[in-house]
Every structure is written in structure tokens, then in C-alpha cells.
Amino acid sequence: MLFRSIFSMIACLIFPASSVYGHGLGIDTISSISIQEKQFSVSIEMPMYFENDQEKITITATDNETDGNVNNVTYLIGIFYNDEMILRNYFFTENGVLPIIVTPTNNGDITIKGEQDSLLGAWSGTESNPVEITGPLFNSGGLYTFEIEVRTIDEPTNIIENSGVYEADLTIVESVSFPQKDQNNKDVEFSTKSYFDSISNFNYDSEDKEVTFEMPFDWNESKMSHVSVVHVETHFPKDFAEFLSPSYVGYVNDIKLFKSSVTVDDYTYDNDRTVHFVLLQDHLRFLKNEMRESEQPLPDNIVFKLSASQETKFPLIAYSESEEFKVNLAWDPKDIESGVATNFVFTIRDSYTDSPMRLSDYTFVIIQNNEEIYRTSGNAAVGGDYEKFTFAKDQTGPTVIKFENIRNTGQETEFALVVVPGSGIDQHPENGFDYVIDCTGFNIDDSLFINCKPKHNGKVPYINGNFESVNIKNLFFAGVLSQEISYKYGSAAFIHGFRYLASSMVKMDTNKLDVTIIDNKQEINKKILNRINTSSALFQMYNCMCDVIIFNKNKFIYIEEVNYRYAKANYINNYNKVLLIGLKYGKIYNEKEETIKNKNGHAFGAVNYYRPTQKDVDYSPGVERDAKLSIFIHPVFELYVNNKYHSDFHLAEHSSPFEQTLLDAHHFSLSYLYEKRQQEQ
User: Fold this and answer.
1) Would strands 97-104 and 131-135 be described as parallel, antiparallel, or unpaired?
2) Collapsing DSSP states into helix, strand and coil, what is residue 413?
3) How confident is the model at residue 435 (pLDDT cuts 50, 70, 90)?
4) Is 16 among the domain residues?
5) Tens digits of per-residue pLDDT, 194-233?
6) Alpha-carbon distance 289 to 292, whole Å?
7) Torsion from C-alpha of 380, 381, 387, 388, nearest 10 degrees
């Protein structure tokens, strides 16, 4: 069943392979018991479903240092359900493992079978002949609390006083039906399945299309510290069109949940849709903090609310039964109407890597009223594909989109949706195209950050020169998220920009920046001219990356390829004289007058759309005042003295048949720069 798989995936994500599932699941571990200088843990494991006449509970004591079992352990165990004690007795295990066979009944008294010692009257058994408990316990779903006191360890007569009381919480999965009424006052069968505690006060509001229900919950930190996950399912018929929505919004105590906390499952059950609430420990702490801000006392429960979304949010996601495959589905137009062509666009992905799976065979099926109305097979060459279908006038209502025999494995999955009556007139002319791509930008999704949200501009996070968040220490961003380093004034947002920034980031992090020490002007000139003519990083990352020269007495420290933000933070603020070398476009545009001016002050108006050429703003390559007029990309030197900006110097790029003359002019310009700055200082 898919819900078991989802459940196991959650457990694997939260806990190491050698650990347990935690509070409210099938296993709970008390990990920090300290008695007589011995550190050990006690785990309790029991089935989440008491489906048979007899089930086994296993209690194990493990030495934290040796990882072996603790011998001769006597427990005083109390079991509570709905705050009422249902059992309290002594139990003994010689080898650290205590198996107990439980036979639930609906009435009668609780009886225990096994061996009893004469010291404390503790019950004991063996793996082949375990202790047996019979009576009215574990016969209802919900949360069970085990209170455990340790009375002996190492030796049967080594009695421990005041060892402390330790708690473990485990759940028996509870499934409950809640008959409700739709907007036409007809019966609708809802149900819930809780993997934590009992559900009560279930209500479906047909007017607002909302489901609400409650579950007891202790928000105190002593309890929450070992709550790993709260998992609850809501079930209702797939043909209940009134509440059948592509997506839902979830709330806990009127606080909106993250999208990842509410998932739709149309595959597990043939006739029912399942909506999962999954609240991880961090989510619970976030909710608790939000409730504290209201300055009201913390409640003793969780009130869940599930609302049919007013907006369809794509893609919809469904997994195959084996969870080997994930299918993302969207459609256009968003409102599926009869008589209007609908494009169903989908991608078949690897569930574990989330990457599209090329050359994926599939069979696309549409079902209404348990009858197949369309079937076709295809191959998604790049992992994604689309199918176009027009529903007939009488083909409306709840509909199932099914993907069968994915990649010829026999695996399948499905989605439930609603087709509404249409006018028969296609109001969407874009349906005449194979694909419509909306390149309308994006907004950042910071939902994965709970208590450490980075500052951002709505699209990308604000970062320092070392790619670290400006407000969250040790949170770094790479790839597309690093583009704020030259946001909207450089090329950091391009794919090649990600490459250069990633390379620079690695060099910074591993202290492998390219650093050269040069002790004469001629060599530094050669180095500069070589870099500005051959460095792809400086050329491709204009306005973003630069080389750095640190003046250190008669020596030059040359550092290659860092971003301007990093250079200013790490070198300008730490050295008396620093020169930054980068490539930039000339800025001769007057924003106020909306004109471009040449060196003689003649304006080229934006109104007449006359675009000036280089000859209109001509310059001499070795003359500083003219080089600034270059409208093409060219080297720009920025001098910082005593931690402050001093001046800049433009070195013009210029086509000339006299290469040596040009080279001499550049050498002259650079030498002039050094001498002039030294004189000024």
C-alpha cells in the first residue's frame, strides 16, 4: 500500500538506518538512561496494527558503549491510554530482550502468564516461551504511553532505587468512518486513518468545501522532543466531485501549512482519494512558535483543516506502487471543459533522483464512471510528453487519468479530476500550438527553511561575496541561486555565469585562488595585458568578476578571478592600496535626458532611435580622458587607497594595424597609472 511506503520513506529520511521510528510510530527508544555509571537505552517495539488474535511486543535494553544487551534488567512498566492506566507490573529479562505476547479482548480482566521471581514478583519468559498478557488492552487505536522504571541491572539482586521514570509513546493505527452530508444533503462517507492519536469532531462544510477534525496533542517540549512525525490521512470517494480538487490547502490550529505537508494520493485505493497530513518535528516546532506569537495559552490538541484549493497548482504528483516512478502532471487550460481540447502534459521521473527518465514507454488512459473512454500508448523520448483530448458533451464529472505499464514494468499510477460542462467553443486559441511556454519569471520558494529563512529579493537570496547568506551564517548558495552577486547588472544569471561562480566558490572554500607575487612593473604589465586579453572569466563575467592587485611596498600580489563583492570585503578593507581589474561597458547614457552623448557633447536622442557607432564617440587608446567614452567592453581599473575608493582608469580597446604602437600605448598607460598614483600618495 502506498501510505505504508510514504510512511517508511518519511522514517528513512528522519532516522538513521540503525535507529527507530520514534514517537507515535511502531518503535520508540528511550536513549539516555544513566544508572550506576552505565549509559544504556531501552526500545519498545510493537505492531502498528493489531490484526491477529495475538501480537508481540518486544522491549530491549542496549548498552550505549558496547552496543550489546544489558543483562538482568527488571522493569516496572505502566501502560496508559487516554490518560488512564490499563496495566502496571514488574517484568524481568535475563538477556536484555523481553518478548511479550498480547491477546486483546473487549472485556474481562487483564491476566498475565509466565514465571514470577520471589524478589519483586517480576514476570519473565523466554523467546520460545514468552510472557503472555490477555485482556482489554490494545483493542482500540490511538496513542499508548509506556512509563518505565528500571529496578535492577547487571545482577538480579542489584536493586535500583529512584532510577527515574521514562516515557515512550507508540501508536496503534486507528481507522474511523465519519458519515457526512454534501451540499444536496446526500450522504458522503468520509474516513480518517491516524498514525498518532485518536481523531474526533470530524466535520465537512459543504458550503466552504472544508474538512476539519481534532486530535489530542501535548505541545510541551518534553513530549515534542521525541515526536518525529505526525501523520494523518483523510479519505473520501473519488466520485465526490464537490470536494475533488487538483490540490488542497492544509491548516493546523488556523496556521497555514507548507505545501510539502499536504499530499494527494489517488492510487492506493481504487475508489477513494487519500489526502495525507505529514508534520515533521521541525514543522511542529514552527507551528508552536507561531501559536506563541498570539500570546494565547498553547492548546492541548491539533485542529486540522483541509480546504479545496481555489487555484490549481501544477504539477500534480503521483507515485507508482513500488515508488520507483514519479509522474508529474499538468494540463491546459486549467479548467477542463467538455468540447474544449485539453493538453495533458506530463513527465515520468525517477522517484529517488527526481530526474526525467528518457525513452519511457507508457499507456495513457482516461476513465469515467468506471468505464474507459480513451486509451493510447506512447514513448516519452526526453522523459516528458503530452496527450491531447477533447471531452464530449456528455463526458463530464469525476474523471481518472491513469498511466499504465510505465517503462514496460507493469507499474501504474493515476490522478483524479473533474470535467465541467463547457460551451463547446474553444476559448483558448493557444490550443492550436503544440506547446505554450510561459517565460514569466519565478519567485523563490523558501518553504524548506523553517527557523532560518534567508533574506531575499523575492527571487534569489541576498548573499555575501563568499556566497553566504547575509543573515544566516554557514548557509551558502550555488548555481542559479548565486546570481544575486551581480543581479541585473552582470552575467551571473546565465548558465556560463553559474559555472564561473561555482569554480570561484570552490577555490575560495579550499583556499586555492590563483595568487602570483611579482616584483617589477614590466612583469606586472605583461601579467595584466595577458589577463585582460585571454581571461574568459573576466570577459564573460563583466561587471561581476575581477582580478586584484595588492600593492605591498615594491611587490605586487596578483589574485585572479574573484567577484567584486568579495574583493571589496576581503582585500580593500585589509590593505592600504588595492587595484581591481575587470571588464565593463562604457556608461555614456544620460538617464535624465534620455540621450547618449559623444565626446564633443553632441546628443543622440532616444526619441529618434538613432544608435551611435564607435566613430561617433571616438577616443585615443592611450589617453585616459578619451578611453572612458568607449561604448564597447573594455578594461576598467579601480584604485582603492586606505580602504576608500580613490579613482578609476579606463584602458580602451582599439583596433589598429600597428600592434606594437598599440602595445606601447597600453604599456605607457599602465606605467602612467602607477606613477601618477604613487605621486598622489
Assistant:
1) parallel
2) strand
3) low
4) yes
5) 999 999 999 999 999 999 999 999 999 888 887 888 999 9
6) 5
7) 180
Question: Could you list the residue range(s) of the whole structural domain that residue 30 is in?
Answer: 2-171
First to last CA, the chain: 78
Residue 160, helix vs strand vs coil: coil
Residue-wise pLDDT for 120-148, tens only, equals: 999 999 888 999 999 999 988 889 999 99
118/189 same-domain check = no
Helix (H) / strand (E) containing 101: strand 97-104
Residue 67 has pLDDT above 60, yes or no: yes
Cβ burial, residue 219 (10 Å; 0-12/13-18/19+): buried
Specify the number of domains making up the chain. Answer: 5
pLDDT(575) > 50: yes
State the chain's mean pLDDT as an integer.
83
Pair 519, 647 in one domain: yes
CA dist., res. 223 & res. 235, Å (int)? 28
Residue 505 counted as domain residue: no
Cis peptide before 333 (omega within 30 of 0): yes
Percent of the chain residues topping a pLDDT of 70:
83
Contact between 207 and 191 under an 8 Å Cβ cutoff? The reply is: no
Residue of 225, 100, 126, 119 lying closest to 166 (CA atoms)? 225
Asked which of 429, 450, 481 is the last residue of a domain, the reply is: 429
Would you say the pTM of this structure is higher than 0.70?
no
Give the DSSP H or E segment for 252.
strand 248-252
Reduce the DSSP state of residue 496 to 3 states and report it: helix
Q: How far apart are CA 499 and CA 484, in angstroms?
A: 15
Domain shared by 138 and 193, yes or no: no
> To which H or E segment does residue 223 belong?
helix 221-224
In whole angstroms, how large is the CA radius of gyration of the chain? Answer: 35
What digits encode the pLDDT tens for the residues 14-56? Answer: 333 222 333 445 788 888 899 988 999 999 999 988 877 889 9
Question: CA angle, 467 as apex, 462 and 470 as ends, to 5°?
Answer: 40
Helix (H/G/I), strand (E/B), else coil: 313: coil
Domain end call among 308, 324, 344: 308
Name 403's Cβ contacts closer than 8 Å, sequence gap at least 6: 318, 327, 346, 348, 362, 363, 364, 365, 412, 413, 414
Contact indicator for 638, 645 with CB cutoff of 8 Å: yes
Residues 614, 471 share a domain:
no
Q: Within this chain, do residues 375 and 450 fall inside the same structural domain, yes or no? A: no
H helix count then E strand count, the chain: 9, 39
